[in-house]
Predict the structure.
Amino acid sequence: MRWILMLVFLGQTVAYTIPTVRFEHPTARGFRASIPDAPGLQMFAFHARLNKPFQQFEEGDYTGDITEPDENGQWTFDTNKPALQNGTIIYYWVYVQAENKGYWLKDKKYTVLRFKGAVAPKTTAPNPTTTTVAPCGQTLTTYNGGLPTCAGKLIFEDTFEQGSFAPKWQHELRIPLDTESAEFVSYQNSPENSYIAAGRLVIVPTLVNMNPDYTDERIRTGELILEGCTSPTNNPYECQRKAARSTILPPVVSAKLNTKHYFRFRYGRVEIRAKLPKGDWIFPQLFLQPYENYYGYADYASGQMWIAHILANRMLVARDGKQIDGHRLRGGVLITNTAPVRSDFLRSNVNDDHFGDQFHVYGLVWTPDQILLTVDGFQYGTLRTNFRQHAQQHNLTQANLWNEKAPIAPFDREFYVSLGVGVGGVKDFPDHSQTGPSKSAKPWNNTSPKAEYFFYQNRNTWYRTWTEPELTIDYVRVYAL
């Protein structure tokens, strides 16, 4: 059954036909929701949760933005979580964009009734004519210095079809210090390390000695000067390094890009479709970074949000036997670099497959009250803690600077999108961890002044695992709440 609403705008009649959402259960787990393709259809956004009605247009536990039809001519949201019992009620709302206009379908529900070889019956509201042109609803989201927007609006998007970084992205040019992870790289703007191909952004780390100018002798005794360095604090140690004694030049070159000078925002929903890297001692950086470091730069005083992060080893086991490799996705926030508080607000989702095996949609929802983490529409983490109180309990001095009236502080200022690939470092890979089937020991200790040197000395072992070291980004989208 289909319902048509006729709308009149300035003397023009506009018709949009919205079909009833079709639900299916192709496997024993999860569900599939779809609408058929139609001329001018641009996006089908689906939001659902189980046994709990929506009040307004909340995010939902199962969400996805579908931007093209499948091979069967359907715009389909698909999830394999969770297993649903008969009688489970799926409450849902959808947003459809067609011919550059937005349409809502809200206050809907569907009751799960599994029948072999049949589609369960659909439930419709008493008044099915709920398709309307999307109003400019109020939202707490602002962007680019406080500009207002409309609820649910797409406020940033890059699908990398234009083949250019400009004007949305700029490269970081710096050597990371121990204010963060002190990863064993220099971030540069090199076509070998970051490029756009076939409508996708690719970031890949490479060994510095692949450049014939960087002999082993130069890495041990030479100097690296980054012209156009983008150190946020103008720290000269982020812009140049002189190798001597236990200090070597960064053995890996990588790339890190951000939207700092084009787009930043406060509160919203981020979605990034990406294929994460695979290889020993690599990690992707899908972050939100503080625009102005309002509360300070050192020790994450202004915070950092992780949309998606893995330790990309194919097999990595911690000292206690816990699996911590690329099968474990992490997301959340950092409010300090000091262990063990550094990881207090990171949440995990373990997958049977390595997160670098295929593309996934990684999401983060940021509101004044909470931060939600999703993968492929499944919510795996929720942060509702008063960060200021938690930091004070652990004697973090930066907490005294945070806004007392904002429980989410320091995450109450504008942030920008940052994408990169790091390698090594002295924070993320725990000492005494073992990698690969042979259970080879991690080749450096995080507290060693020669950590980077020992990592480099082991390159003939770990570099052989870098068969898929690239981070590939299909799209980046940010929506208003």
